[in-house]
Design brief:
By secondary structure, this protein is mainly α. The protein contains 10 helices and no strands. Pfam families: SSF.
């Protein structure tokens, strides 16, 4: 609980500092782009921290645990493709955006192609795909918070109160309602929306830099602890090699000659 409160306080402190940077500057350029002067290292950290989402820490390990090391090839492709795409088009996109004075990608496409329809379609597609991406992040954040705060007294009391409110609701309630999940989901969502709306893009980048450092140190420590527990990488590989895909979702086609 203490670590969670400290982390949240640091995040909102960064949002406050970012909001102070807007004084005397163009609101649109500073709020949405950080005045384009955040630097290479900040951009690198924010890209890495954004890419290493809930799927990286919850989805990918689960898939490797289930299907074995072969899933690492799929994960490798997931990492390489955005980097290649960025290398091919990011510089050109930046040039076009600066020349046209665009803030967002849909605005840049609308001005570049001279078609409001293209900009509207790009906006709809962006919102559609980002909805599902953010849905996974919010779920992962709620699950992590549930694990982190599960034995805290105040959290247990709040969880029970949430369950008592949700159980009578026909569309979400019932005897199996998980008050801890909904409580953590609400706290996580409000916190993310609040510091993002308060500090703008600069706050997002600064918190990503902090989170990137936390994830980097955490992964190094976790890797050492995990390998120690399983007896080294060789033993971990042997154990993973014994695993077979689950029967659910596997299509079997058997052909017999008669």
């Amino acid at each position: 609980m203490v670590s969670f409160c400290i982390y949240t306080a640091v995040v909102f402190a960064l949002a406050w500092l970012a909001s102070r940077k807007r004084e005397g500057k163009s609101f649109m350029n500073e709020y949405f782009l950080g005045s384009r002067n955040l630097g290479m290292w900040a951009f690198a950290f924010t890209y890495a921290a954004t890419s290493a989402s809930g799927g990286s820490f919850m989805g990918f390990p689960a898939k490797i645990y289930t299907y074995g090391w072969v899933m690492a090839l799929w994960i490798g492709g997931y990492i390489v493709v955005p980097l290649v795409a960025m290398g091919l088009i990011s510089k050109r996109l930046n040039q076009v955006a600066r020349k046209s004075g665009s803030i967002t990608v849909p605005e840049m496409m609308r001005k570049r192609l001279g078609s409001p329809t293209v900009g509207q379609v790009a906006t709809v597609l962006l919102v559609f795909f980002q909805f599902f991406f953010l849905l996974a992040q919010f779920k992962a954040g709620a699950k992590i918070m549930t694990t982190l705060l599960g034995d805290v007294g105040v959290f247990i009391v709040a969880k029970d109160a949430i369950e008592s409110v949700l159980q009578p609701l026909p569309w979400i309630g019932g005897s199996g309602v998980d008050g801890a999940y909904y409580l953590c989901l609400g706290v996580f969502a409000v916190s993310v929306v609040a510091y993002t709306a308060w500090g703008g893009f600069r706050a997002v980048v600064w918190t990503d830099v902090m989170q990137g450092g936390v994830m980097l140190v955490g992964v190094v420590i976790l890797l050492g602890l995990a390998l120690t527990q399983v007896g080294g990488l060789a033993n971990a590989t042997r154990e993973v090699a014994k695993m077979v895909p689950p029967e659910d979702g596997v299509l079997r086609v058997e052909v017999s000659a008669k």
